[in-house]
Write a structure and sequence with these properties.
The complex is a heterotrimer of chains A (799), B (346) and C (218). With 346 residues, chain B is mostly beta strands. Chain B is built from two helices and 23 strands. Chain C has seven helices and ten strands. The chains are: A alpha+beta (799), B mainly beta (346), C alpha/beta (218).
Chain lengths: 799, 346, 218
């Protein structure tokens, strides 16, 4: 019986290969976009997690030699015996000159846990580890190490490219660095009562942790973009699948009735159909994962370049097929199919045995169903509104996004219906009237594809608005923060004094970077001492400010806080903030501080030096009209190493190039999602074409040419796409607002100002129209060439 | 006498053998084994014995502040050997672990350190006596006069110790049997330290005085495989008598007990299996498990029948190998103070 | 002469080459005349109707309708003829589902630029459709749908009305009513009526009957 049932079900697909293709292709596209984006995300994250973990950069403070690149092992022991919890790192390159591998040696017993595979070795399997002393590397690196080592190589995909990690003893031996170390990692938690570093190891300097810095947060934003895109793309794909499944189930109502009438139990039928869908979902999933792999592989070089820009040469440009990733791709395909098919299966389960088997796919959905849909969508939008007003937390932010998008998508068909009804009333020409009425009649069949288009366009508008706003804001922020032409790092207090004397010039501003980690308003924060001059007064853009803000700060009567601190502590201009030991100053300004997770307060330099006399500035911004000349004299006359001087233009150009990369990726995804939506329209039109003959045949018989009907089909697609585009604009802007003003605030603590890009939106709308025209061309041409005999078949079964 | 840690450290190489890693099995064979009727050689035996697999220097102290508040401190240096040898450099098979804790009636602070032997980060030198890991140190001219320092993220201590009595030897002259199958260790103590110094807490420094108890123990295989946990008591009665007693819990629900009765002048009597008894009376929810924090301790041969209660029931050592260890006081049947360690409560 | 069909031939592609449906048909109709086309299933009677109405193209032969040779017209010309000169009533799916009854009735007349609201109103009244004007086709009974189709065909004031089994989907009583109304109204407009039917009873009500057998008139 199973076999008979299956062959009956399967016969439908044999007779409707287009539907089968639509279903599988829809699933494959949804899975592909989702898993492609996930792969890119996962690969990028893995890359810089590995990089950060390997280096200890980012996460931890480090001790580096002030001169040279070696630290005596006895200095490490002296620091440990003085209560400094530091972990040794040995680092060097091995292998052939053109194929070098960075070898990093760590001590698992003193390395902070979580720092690569060795960080965990102390608590798990230490004896095995010490017995074997393996080298950890990813597969590509392991291949390069072939024959170089006599220790076992353990493949670990999480290790940064071209990097091998091993025990410190192995690394010292391989690198010929007996009793020598490269640097020390400072554990984040230290015992109380340690002597200062200068007493134990005066020749070491401490480099603060860079984790959570500007760029780190930036990449988080970048990934948030990608993830949002992935989700929306998936939603678009699921709309297609839902449409295809709904159609198939409608068309098979007759078959279901017959099968049941012939004695097939309903339960078994449902199981059969579910199994059939599962098989299709897996098929679509496999194809989708393969496509996703292609998408990811083609996008990854750009993403890798982006990340490389942010993190230096630590990124793998090649994609690994991680099982977790392709399994999740299959899972999401099955899950999506289940989601899309649940309603249809329930419908079949509830269908009375003797119900009409007439397909309803293009039946006019006037009345209850449409009202219910409108009410549901309004309810969702109301929830979205409530969440926007009252909700808190990142989950709420995504909940808001979900409610907004689904609510808006559901509202689209009723809105379009009203608009078309209005157009029909206004039309005077009979062809136009018929056109509008017929378009309206088409809505139920096209609404899923249109919803997909709506979501795709809204996602494009939303995400590109976010990215562009981000770029504008950040460019401005860079101008403000990187106002100095040169950035100079000194290495000791003595050098600092000499440097300040050397560059002293009334016409030149030297801006020390004085900061201390502290607690402000019960939140971890940084306090900065600023040498207030023209640079601050002219370049800094404040989000809110009191009169004479810089003068009052300079006179030590006020301070400035960043937006993060202001928002988290619930403070604003005019409120008092206590710094240091009980000194309360009013807030005179709020500064936008994009990409920084931590709160900051800025006071005048003299006040800072009073409060923290022990803090020395080791970094300076120097304003200069002739930065190149100054740089040369600093190197040659003052004797500062060249790597201690950074050219501001370089940093800025570099940061901006990172954004360009981000744009490349975003633009590529834009095109892909729109293509998916266009595909949805194409498939819907193609499916509808055969079912629409009874609607079109009378109009043709009464005197409209097939050519004219074909033209009108094309116009119809354009009109619907244009109307959808109109609806997508406010939705996309709302989406951008949620991303910028809600999700971003919840995720990172700062709100990005939103900029509008009307030209971009217009381009996008044109693009959508072109996509609609392309999607409608083939069905329209087919209609224009339908043989009259096919049209005539509508009127009678007999010739 | 930190059994859980001991089990963990000892089982690791066994697992390695089970997983078939070459060499470890034969190396395990190569470790020296404790033998009855030991002849100790001091001060050399205060130092490390790298040819034994496991060893520790374990100090606990009951203290009071100026206002009579009871405090406890613990300091332990463990040595675990992967092979019965010692070499210079990172390759040394000797691994060192340190645990330090301070207990107040309201709070318990604990922290740990790791180090590899052979590079000078940790070790023990017999004469002049110095046991150290990082900046933690137990050192003095001899084992009778010591200074102990340690610090963690939220506490520190710096105390001087002066012995008021002789070393005492457990079991058969320092040969302490740990199971009916004959697993054993070398085990002696200095239970007569008087202590004075300061402890630093988040609330500030506190001057303290009190008594301390140092355990020295080393072995290569002191436990049987079916022993799952351990309740260990070191008690100092106000009469001047002292009692060391432990109960090794076996997986079948039975116990193996052992102990030493110590008179004020340092005279010892071994308490064979069954002649020391400790019975839990009440438990406290600690770190998601129930831990007995009120005990009835009995030594019938000495007319001892006392109720022992934790000073701070939450004395949980939340370290990579977690266990309970903290000061106790007698609240019935006798008076005095002591230390309790409990392991293997999952 | 309103309609003159000469040597009309038409075949449809089949599995084993073209299947001839009409072999050689000659036929003529005067203005205002009513004619019944009868024949077996597949005899080609609907095809004659389609070719005359410009709905399909002949393989050979000549169809002169109101002075226009339908076989020489292109798609656009045939559409214009359908719009201006022909009214059609088919067995099913006559109506445009997206338009209400009023719009359906007016549709062809407005396409032809010949819309007269009063005449349309009169037609609707005559056919008993006034209460249904705001309804959509799917809300009507079969008989009502056919009445709407008849009203639409008449509203354009065509030269000829082509009806293909117009009552084929209706029960006997309704069929009689619909036919009566149609004949009465057609008579009033002066249009010719060519009706395909397999019912001898219906055919008998036409002024002339021709019988088709294997693609030729008997």
């Amino acid at each position: 019986m199973m076999r008979t049932g299956l062959s009956a079900l399967w016969s439908h697909w044999r007779r409707n290969p287009l539907q089968l293709f639509t279903l599988v292709a829809g699933l494959a596209l949804a899975t592909a976009l989702w898993s492609g984006v996930q792969a890119v995300n996962a690969e990028a994250r893995a890359s810089y997690d590995a990089a950060a973990a390997t280096l200890g950069d980012g996460q931890y403070d480090q001790l580096l030699p002030e001169r040279g690149d070696l630290i005596a092992q006895k200095t490490f022991i002296a620091l440990r015996r003085a209560g400094w919890l530091v972990g040794p790192v040995v680092e060097g390159r091995i292998g052939a000159p053109d194929n070098r591998v960075r070898l990093v040696g760590l001590d698992p017993l003193t390395t902070p846990s979580g720092l690569g595979p060795l960080g965990d070795a102390a608590t798990t399997g230490l004896p095995d580890y010490l017995e074997q002393l393996p080298v950890y590397a990813n597969a590509a690196t392991a291949a390069k190490l072939e024959g170089l080592l006599n220790t076992p190589v353990v493949i670990d995909a999480d290790i940064a490219p071209d990097t091998a990690i091993t025990d410190i003893s192995v690394a010292q031996r391989l690198l010929g660095m007996d009793v020598q170390l490269s640097r020390l990692i400072v554990a984040p938690v230290q015992p109380i009562g340690r002597p200062p570093l200068a007493e134990i190891a005066p020749d070491l300097i401490r480099r603060p942790a860079q984790g959570g810095g500007d760029v780190g947060r930036l990449t988080d934003s970048f990934h948030l973009n990608l993830t949002a895109f992935g989700l929306l793309s998936f939603a678009v794909g699921i709309f297609i699948v839902h449409g295809a499944i709904g159609l198939v189930f409608e068309q098979r109502r007759g078959m279901v009735r017959t099968l049941r009438a012939l004695g097939m139990p309903l339960n078994r039928l449902i199981v059969l159909m579910a199994a059939e869908l599962l098989a299709l979902a897996l098929l679509g999933g496999v194809v989708g994962v393969l496509l996703g792999y292609l998408i990811a592989a083609s996008l990854l070089p750009d993403v890798a370049a982006t990340i490389e820009g942010l993190y230096g040469a630590q990124v793998s440009g090649t994609l690994q097929l991680r099982p977790a990733w392709w399994l999740s791709g299959l899972a999401i395909s099955v899950l999506g199919t289940g989601l899309a098919a649940a309603g249809a299966l329930v419908g079949i389960a509830r269908m009375p045995l003797l119900a009409s088997a007439k397909p309803r796919a293009w039946a006019t959905a006037r009345g209850t169903a449409r009202r219910l849909q409108a009410m549901g969508s309004l309810a969702l939008l109301a929830v979205a509104g409530l969440l926007a007003l009252a909700g808190e937390g990142l989950i709420m932010g995504f909940g808001l996004l979900g409610c907004l998008l689904i609510g808006a998508a559901l509202l689209l068909p009723p809105v379009l219906d009203r608009v078309l009804a209005g157009a029909q009333r206004l039309a005077t020409n009979v062809t136009a009237q018929w056109f509008w009425a017929d378009t309206r009649q088409q809505l139920p069949g096209l609404s899923l594809a249109l919803m997909a288009l709506l979501l795709a366009m809204a996602a494009n508008i939303g995400v590109s608005t976010m990215v562009s706003s981000f770029r504008l804001t950040f460019t401005g922020f860079l101008d403000q923060r990187l106002a100095s032409e040169l950035y100079v790092t000194t290495e000791s207090a003595a050098q600092t004094a000499a440097f300040e004397a050397f560059v002293a010039d009334p016409a030149r501003e030297t801006l020390p970077l004085l900061s201390v980690d502290t607690t402000l308003a019960d939140l971890p924060a940084e306090l900065y001492g600023a040498r207030i001059g023209a640079t601050y007064r002219e370049n800094w853009v404040l989000l809110a400010q009191a009169p004479d803000v810089w003068t009052r700060v300079a006179e030590q009567q006020a301070l400035i806080v960043n937006e993060q601190l202001a928002r988290r502590a619930g403070l604003w201009v005019g409120d008092d903030l206590t710094i240091g030991t009980g000194l309360a100053l009013p807030i005179a300004g709020i500064v936008g501080d994009y990409g920084n997770p931590i709160g900051q307060a800025i006071v005048a330099e003299p006040l800072f030096r009073d409060l923290y006399p022990e803090v020395e500035a080791l970094s300076f911004g120097v304003r200069s009209e002739t930065p190149q000349a100054l740089r040369e004299s600093l190197i040659e006359e003052f004797g500062l190493p060249a790597q201690n001087i950074t050219d501001q233009a370089q940093i800025k150009a570099f940061s901006l190039s990172v954004f360009e990369r981000t744009f490349t990726v975003t633009a590529a995804l834009n095109v892909l999602t729109l293509a998916v939506a266009a595909f949805a329209i194409f498939m819907s039109l193609l499916t509808l074409a055969t079912m629409r003959l009874p609607q079109l045949a009378p109009a043709w018989a009464l005197g409209l040419t097939r050519r004219r009907l074909g033209q009108l089909e094309l116009v119809r697609a354009v009109v619907l796409a244009a109307l959808t585009a109109l609806c997508a604009l406010p939705l996309g802007l709302a989406l951008a607002w949620v991303l910028l003003a809600v999700v971003n605030v919840e995720a990172f603590g700062w709100r990005l100002p939103m900029f509008l890009f009307p030209l971009d939106y217009l381009t996008l709308a044109l693009f959508a129209l072109v996509a609609a025209v392309i999607a409608a061309t083939l069905p329209a041409r087919r209609l224009a060439r339908t043989p009259p005999s096919d049209l005539l078949k509508v009127f009678a079964n007999e010739r | 006498m930190n059994v859980k840690i001991l089990i963990t450290f000892l089982l690791l190489p066994v697992c390695a053998v089970a997983q078939g890693f070459a060499g470890l099995g034969t190396q395990a064979e190569g470790f020296a084994m404790p033998a009855p009727a030991p002849q100790f050689d001091f001060p050399a035996d205060h130092g490390a014995h790298p040819d034994y697999r496991i060893e520790w220097w374990y100090l606990t102290a009951n203290m009071t502040g100026p206002d009579g508040t009871p405090y406890g401190l613990q300091w332990t240096l463990f040595r675990s050997a992967l092979a019965p040898e010692t070499t210079e450099g990172w390759d040394s098979p000797q691994i060192w672990f340190g645990h330090a804790a301070v207990t107040t009636p309201e709070a318990h602070f604990a922290t740990e350190r790791y180090a590899r032997g052979g590079i000078g980060q940790a070790g023990v030198q017999a004469d002049p006596f110095t046991a150290w890991i990082d900046e933690w140190q137990l050192a003095g001219t001899g084992i009778d006069r010591l200074r102990l320092t340690a610090s963690g993220p939220d506490f520190a201590y710096d105390v001087a110790l002066e012995a008021q009595g002789p070393l005492v030897f457990h079991g058969d002259g320092g040969y302490s049997v740990k199971s009916a199958q004959g697993q054993a260790s070398y085990y002696y103590s200095q239970p007569f330290f008087e202590l004075a110094g300061t402890i630093t807490l988040p609330t500030g420094k506190v001057d303290v005085t009190g008594t301390a108890w140092l355990d020295r123990e080393w072995s290569s295989q002191p436990l049987a495989a079916d022993q799952t946990g351990w309740d260990w008591f070191s008690l100092s009665f106000d009469t001047g008598n002292k009692l060391m007693g432990f109960r090794l819990r076996q997986s079948d629900g039975s116990y193996y007990t052992s102990g030493t009765w110590i008179t004020p002048d340092g005279h010892t009597t071994a308490l064979p299996d069954g002649s020391f008894d400790a019975e839990p009376l009440a438990t406290t929810a600690v770190a998601g498990r129930d831990i007995p924090t009120r005990w009835r301790v009995q030594v019938p041969s000495r007319d001892v029948d006392t109720i022992v209660e934790a000073v701070n029931p939450q004395s949980w050592m939340d370290l990579s190998v977690p266990y309970w260890e903290g000061p106790v006081r007698m609240v019935g049947g006798a008076s005095g103070v002591g230390y309790l360690e409990m392991t293997g409560y999952e | 002469m309103l309609l003159s069909v000469k040597a009309l031939a038409k075949s449809y592609p089949g599995a084993d080459g073209p299947v001839p449906v009409l072999r050689h048909v000659d036929l003529a109709m005067q203005a205002g005349e009513t004619l019944a086309l009868t024949g077996e299933s597949g005899s080609g009677k609907s095809t004659i109707l389609h070719l005359v109405g410009g709905l399909d193209t002949a393989d050979s032969g000549e169809i002169l309708l109101d002075g226009h040779d339908m076989t020489r017209l292109d798609d656009k010309g045939r559409a214009a003829m359908r719009r201006d000169a022909v009214g059609i009533v088919f067995q099913q799916f006559n109506l445009i589902p997206s338009l209400d009854v009023a719009a359906n009735i007016a549709f062809q007349a407005r396409l032809a630029g010949r819309y007269d609201p009063h005449a349309t109103q009169d037609l609707a009244e005559a056919l008993g459709l006034t209460a249904q004007m705001a309804k959509y086709p799917e809300q009507l009974s079969g008989g009502q749908q056919q009445r709407v189709a008849i009203a639409r065909a008449l509203a354009v004031r065509p030269r000829i009305i082509l009806a293909d089994e117009p009552t084929g989907n209706l029960d006997e009583t309704t069929a009689e009513d619909v036919l009566d109304q149609m004949l009465a109204l057609v008579a009033g407009t002066g249009a010719a009526l060519m009706m395909v039917t397999h019912s001898r009873g219906l055919a008998a009500r036409m002024e002339r009957q021709v019988h088709l057998r294997q693609g030729t008139l008997e």
